[in-house]
Each structure stands twice: as C-alpha cells, then as structure tokens.
Design brief:
heterodimer; A: mainly alpha; B: alpha/beta; Rossmann fold; Alpha-Beta Plaits; 11 helices; 36% helix
Chain lengths: 291, 316
C-alpha cells in the first residue's frame, strides 16, 4: 500500500469520526472526574503532599530572623531547587500522581461503579483520554499552585532584593521553568500510572519498581534513560544542584539534551504510554468479585 | 433490514473465568418482546447479561444485538440500556445527576437531557426524590433509579438483572407494567428474576439456565411441550367428574386422572395433551359431561423450572 493511499484512508477515517461528540464527551468526563478527584476528603493527603513544603517555607519566611543578604538569597535559591527537584519531582508529584491516576480506573473498580462508564455510548479511548485529562488538571492545579507559592514565599522575605532577583534577574525564568517541569512531570507520571492501573490489579508494587527505575536510570545507557520521566525533567531544571556522594545520582546528566528535545521527548513518551492505555482498556472487564 | 437486525443473537458463546465456567456453548436468538432468564444462583444469568452488554468478553463465540456489537459503543449503547444488579453508585451523586450526566455523554444537549431525565424519573416514580443523594435512598429507590437510568435514553433493548428485587408490591406492579409497555412498543426486554410467578405473567419466552448451560429456550408453552419426561397436567372443571375420569383412564397416554376434592372437576396427567383434548371434545359433544373450564395446570415457568432444573438448583 502506497503512502498516498494510506494517507487518503487515514483522511477518510478521520472525516468519519464524530470529533465534536468526542470533544463534548471528554469535557463531561473531565468535569465529573475533577469533581470526584479534587473536591473530596479522601484526597486530603495529596493536598498535604503538595502543600507541606509551602508551609515549611512560609514558617521559614516568618520565623527566620537571620541575615537576608545576597549570600542567603543564593543559598535559598539552592534550597528551593532542592525542594522542587528532590522533593516535588522525586516524591511529591510521583506519589500524588500514583494516587490520582491509579484511582481513575482501579478506584472505580473498587467502588464498583466502572460499569456505568462502560454502558454509555463512549469509546473506551475517549474514556481514557477524558480521565487522563481530569487527572492532569487535578495534579497540575495542586502542584503548580504549590510550586508557585513556594517560590513566592521563598523570595518574599528578601524584600526589594528578592523582587529584583525575580523581575530583573533570573527568578522569573526559573519560575517559568519550574512550572513547565511540574506540568510535564504530572503528564509523564500520570500516563505511567494510568497504564500501570490498567496492567495490574494492585499497581502499588509496580509503582515502587518505577520509582526504583526513575532513581537508578542515570547509570544506564542513554537510550535506556530516555524511558524514564526524570531524564527529561532534569534537562529542564534551571538550577543545578551541587550534590555529592550517593545523592549525586539524582543530578547525573549522561547526555545533554536541548530543552526543546526534552519537552518533545517527554510528550512523545506520554502519548506512547497513553496509546498503550487505550489498547489496555479494551481488555478490561467488569469482574468486581475478583477485585 | 437484515434478519439479524431486529434480533439478539448468541452464537456458540462460552465464557470462562480462569478455569471456572461462566456459560458454555450458548446459542440462541431472541425476537422483540419480554424474555426471561430463569435459573438458580450461579447458573450464568448475570454472566449472559454482562456478555450481552459487553461488560465482559466471550472466551469464544460471538454476540450480535440488533446487528451491532459492544465494540461499536456509540451505536450499540444508544440501542441498549442495562440495569445491573450492582448496588453501587458514584460517590456523592444525586438521583437527577445519576441520570442526567450519562445522557449528556450520549450526546444530548442540556435541554434534551434534562427533559429525558425528568421523563425517566417520572416513569420510575422517582421525581419527588430526584435531588436527594442516592446514598440516602432505600433499596427499592436505588433499584428504581437504576431502572430510570437504563430507560432514560429510550433504548431498543432493555436488559434488567433482577429488576424486581427490593421493590414493594406497588412498585413491583408498576415496574412490570412499565416493562410490558416497553415490550409492546416492539422492543426487547430481557429480565432475569427469581420471582417465577411474575416472570410467568409477563414473559413472552424464557431461557432456562443451569450450571452455565441453556437447558431450554423458547415460548413457555413450547418449552413445556418439549418436556416429555413429565406428563402435562390439565385441569377440567365439569359437572360429571367421575365419568370424565373413567373415560380418560381408557386412554394409554393418560397416567393419572384425579377427581378434585369438591367433586366438580378432574386433574388429568397425560403424555399427549392433543389426544386428550380430542377425547374431551367427543365427550362434551356427546352430552355426557358439561365442561365449565379447561386449563393447562403446569405450563408455567414455575413448573418448567421444577421439571428441568429441580428445586435443588441442579440439572434435572
């Protein structure tokens, strides 16, 4: 089959699809899932995961009465980088995404409500996309606001020096990078955990394996590193952490990649894993008794 | 329209859960009307319904509903409504939203979805409590709100798993009237129920199941005729019961003729009902006996169930 006939077929297939219906279904699914995931008491620990560093930095801002000169500003920039790169990207976003995205389907199996989603005229791929987007919105809303708050509180204690660092110095660029990396982390980890929840009845153990892989991936060859989310995130972080000893594993950059390629690579990884989820959802059956 | 376009067709369908049999080699086709799935617990009724609606996939065989399969969800679920037995609801939902949002997923606009929601709530008798949280509903109300959701989009095939469970007599009779009204519009209504008297009253045909196998399938009287092991029982209310009993006994195929306690009738058990009716005609036209009423006494679902499946739930 020639490329031209293949393209013509794809075009005619695309024309036959009810894209408008898919769009409205996705928006309804997103609305329902966001309400289910964001506004529920069960999710309090995810709020804590996102906001504990904010509270610590706020306390530091209020109670630390020490000197506030350029050296401290430099030191706090490193501390903020550590919090974002070591806590948020490695732990906070990781575990929050694990909770949010594995619950999207597995949670409905546990609550015995997934059949309602399977008995409406919605393609299962649309269901996957709708639920994924809802999870992404919840995760991004939580962690972008948390990272933004961390940044604001960290530099607010420096007064005009802090303001100057943010608006006249590298601060605003760093904030933009952190927000971008946070969003990408939510996308990447979200896709991974959504797929895991469709592959395994109990995705916790595979989740721990993924965490191990994300940690040790830097010691593997460059092609293998591309299969980890942190590989792409690391290249987008604006501040390099001066870590020594075993912790240095978190900062190893085996092969430098341009920010554009890092973003593109992570989006490709996300789309690939999402496509796998779309395939896996077709195998899912409603057998609550064996859950 | 192709012949299968109005039918529900099971072609050699089997379902195994690991090594456990769900249903085995099920083949039948159903015409519009009310079909009851009857069988003891674990006989495969719910498995059959879940297969029909695509909640589970067959290990082998194929299922077509009005020429569609669940792999075409947009077309399929516009035609099919399923009221499952799972007594669970999305957390925090109220009765109205439980019906409204699935309708929006069907592609109905806000106004149309609201109209259909209100209509379904009215039909299920739930309009007054629609804004209350489902978590606060009684079992009967939860059953009815699930029914309302299943019928809200006006499906051509309505699948109901134990729809009368938990309903009070009034609600039960209203639900049955609703099923009959839907079936009269030329739709499929497939019901599983263990309340055999009610199944018998409303069903056009039955599918009798036991241990994952379809034991018998068809119109109730046809199925009864095919059960050769158990002679048919015919109740005759008449003036001269002793005379009729004596005449009946002369026939080879009559195995029992019992005069009723009040003396005004005979219960006949025969292996050939047609021959007995011929004899009865002859006796009546001869003026020997005055007949008030004649009725089969065991061509109901309950009797067929007892004969084919037995009270212990095992195969006959």
């Amino acid at each position: 089959m020639s490329a031209r006939s293949l393209a013509a077929k794809a075009k005619s297939w695309s024309r036959e699809q009810p894209w408008r219906l898919f769009g409205s279904q996705v928006s309804i699914l997103v609305r329902n899932e966001v309400r289910r995931n964001l506004f529920t008491r069960r999710r309090i620990w995810i709020y804590l995961l996102a906001w504990i560093p904010v509270l610590i930095i706020l306390a530091h801002t209020i109670f630390d009465t020490g000197p506030r000169g350029p050296a401290q500003l430099e030191e706090d920039t490193q501390v903020l980088a550590g919090i974002i790169q070591l806590y948020y990207f490695r732990l906070g976003i990781f575990f929050a995404c694990m909770a949010i995205f594995t619950w999207l389907f597995r949670g409905e199996m546990v609550e015995r409500t997934l059949h309602y989603q399977f008995l409406v005229p919605v393609r299962r791929e649309v269901l996957v996309v709708g639920k994924f987007l809802a999870g992404v919105i919840v995760a991004i809303a939580l962690f972008e606001t948390a990272v933004f708050a961390c940044f604001c509180f960290m530099y607010s204690r420096f007064g005009s020096a802090g303001k100057s660092y943010v608006f006249d110095g590298p601060g605003l660029g760093q904030l933009t990078s952190y927000l971008l990396v946070t969003a990408l982390a939510c996308l990447g980890y979200g896709a991974v955990f959504l797929a895991l929840s469709l592959l395994f009845k109990n995705p916790i153990i595979p989740g721990v394996v993924i965490m191990g892989w994300e940690t040790i991936a830097p010691i593997f060859p460059a092609w293998a590193q591309r299969l980890s989310v942190t590989f792409y995130l690391k290249h987008l972080c604006p501040v390099t952490l001066p870590l020594d000893g075993p912790l240095a594993i978190f900062t190893i950059v085996a092969e430098p990649v341009s920010p554009f390629l890092a973003v593109f690579g992570l989006l490709c990884l996300t789309v690939s894993i999402l496509a796998l989820s779309c395939f896996l959802i077709h195998r899912l059956e409603i057998t609550y008794t064996v859950e | 329209m192709t012949p299968g376009a109005r039918q529900i067709v099971f072609e050699n369908v089997s379902k195994f859960y690991g090594e456990v049999l769900g249903v085995n080699k099920v083949s039948f086709s159903l015409e519009p009307g009310i079909t009851s799935l009857v069988g003891p617990n674990g006989s495969g009724k719910t498995t059959l319904m879940n297969l029909l609606t695509g909640l589970i996939r067959p290990s082998q065989g194929a299922i077509h509903v009005l020429g569609l399969t669940p792999q075409q969800p947009i077309e399929f679920f516009r035609q099919v409504g399923y009221c499952t037995q799972f007594d669970s609801f999305p957390p925090g939902t109220n009765g109205y939203d439980f019906i409204y949002w699935p309708l929006r997923l069907h592609g109905f606009g806000r106004e149309q979805a609201a109209k259909l929601t209100n209509e379904a709530l009215e039909r299920a008798g739930m309009a007054q409590v629609a804004r209350r949280k489902v978590a606060g509903y009684s079992k009967g109300m939860r059953q009815r709100i699930r029914l309302a959701q299943a019928i809200a989009h006006h499906p051509s095939v309505l699948v109901l798993d134990e729809p009368l469970n938990g309903l009070d007599p009034m609600a039960r009779s209203e639900s049955i009237a609703l099923f009959e009204a839907i079936a009269k519009q030329g739709m499929h209504v497939i019901i599983s129920s263990h309340i055999l008297e009610e199944v018998d009253r409303i069903s056009d045909r039955v599918v009798l199941m036991s241990s994952g196998y379809v034991v018998a399938e068809g119109q109730i009287r046809e199925v009864r005729r095919e059960v050769q092991d158990h002679p048919m029982q015919i109740l005759v209310r008449c003036s001269n019961a002793a005379r009729l009993a004596a005449a009946a006994f002369e026939l080879d195929h009559v195995v029992e003729a019992k005069i009723l306690n009040d003396g005004h009738g005979v219960l006949v058990r025969t292996r050939d009902a047609e021959q007995f009716y011929l004899l009865l005609n002859k006796i009546v036209s001869g003026g020997l006996v005055e007949v008030d009423a004649v009725a089969p006494a065991d061509d109901d679902v309950n009797s067929i169930y007892q004969y084919l499946i037995g009270s212990d739930g095992g195969p006959a």
